[in-house]
Amino acid sequence: MTDRRSTLLKTLGLTALTLGGLAVANTLAARAAERRYPPEGRFLTVDGVRLHYMEAGNGPPVVLLHGNVSALGDSLASGLFQRLARTHRVIAFDRPGMGHSDRPRDRAWTPEDQADLLARAFDALEIGNAVVVGHSYATLVALALALDHPRTVKGLVLMAGYYFPTKRADAALVAPLAMPVLGDLLRHTLSPPVSMAMMPGLLKTLFSPRPVPDHLTESFPAALTIRPGQMRANAQDGVTMAPAADRLQHRYADVTVPVAIFAGHQDRVVEQEEQSGRLHHVLPDSTMHWVPDSGHMVHYVDPELVVRRIGDLSAGKTAPRIVAHR
């Protein structure tokens, strides 16, 4: 009995040392990532939340919102931000908890919560009547903005979105990371190195059927996405996505602004025929753009096409209901 107890104590001590070492290593790695990818924009505190954003250009306002496990650097890596800045006032936000923006623990941070916060940020920055562009998870945030804060939105561009609830294995996998105590332990120890090891496969899935762009390693801050704080935000977004889609789907018919929907038939993250195709039928004032040879990252395939459609919405121009691109 004494030998077993001694073995157990040694095992527990070794486990504690290992986890403590991982926590220290992950903290150092997070600080190194923040030094490598420092904030390039400005900060704005709204409702006690510090938001990081970038702004450039003059003209009609356009707001860019990135998806999950991402940051505003996505709009820079794809070239959307730079192209839009030639003719528009373009503002890209790090959504709460992502990139260099904070996410306090005092609320659930559903798409509606994020839309409410962004609407206050719009007021502070004097952004009104903007074309709001959302990718992936952020399409729900963009729709919530149009529904709950219609005066802020002139039109929507929704790319590779998720709009109707389905059973998703990825939500179940990340659910432990969103839990109190257990999630804190995992995010500070085991999850960052596991996520880093999985990152190449994730990027390959996101960009499939096309290759991952050569410049992405330097231009997109992937290391920021696996910091313990952002992993909490990633997990929260993952588990709130389907319930939010279930709530919002009953309100889509109330969207009063024109909507441009972009999707790729070969999306391996979201079934776009089921999601984007269905949304197009629900929204009477929408155009459906099927981007050929494209998966989830449709804005990397043809950013000029997305920019042209944003320009059309800014100028109040109409387009055919379904647009096939070659």
UniProtKB/TrEMBL annotation:
The keyword Hydrolase applies. One of its GO terms (molecular function) is hydrolase activity. InterPro entries: AB_hydrolase_1, AB_hydrolase_fold, AB_hydrolase_sf, Epox_hydrolase-like, TAT_signal. GO terms for cellular component: membrane. It comes from the Bacteria. Pfam families: Abhydrolase_6. Keywords: Hydrolase. Residues 62-308 form the AB hydrolase-1 domain. PANTHER family: HYDROLASE, PUTATIVE (AFU_ORTHOLOGUE AFUA_2G14860)-RELATED, MONOACYLGLYCEROL LIPASE. This is Alpha/beta hydrolase. It comes from Azospirillum palustre.
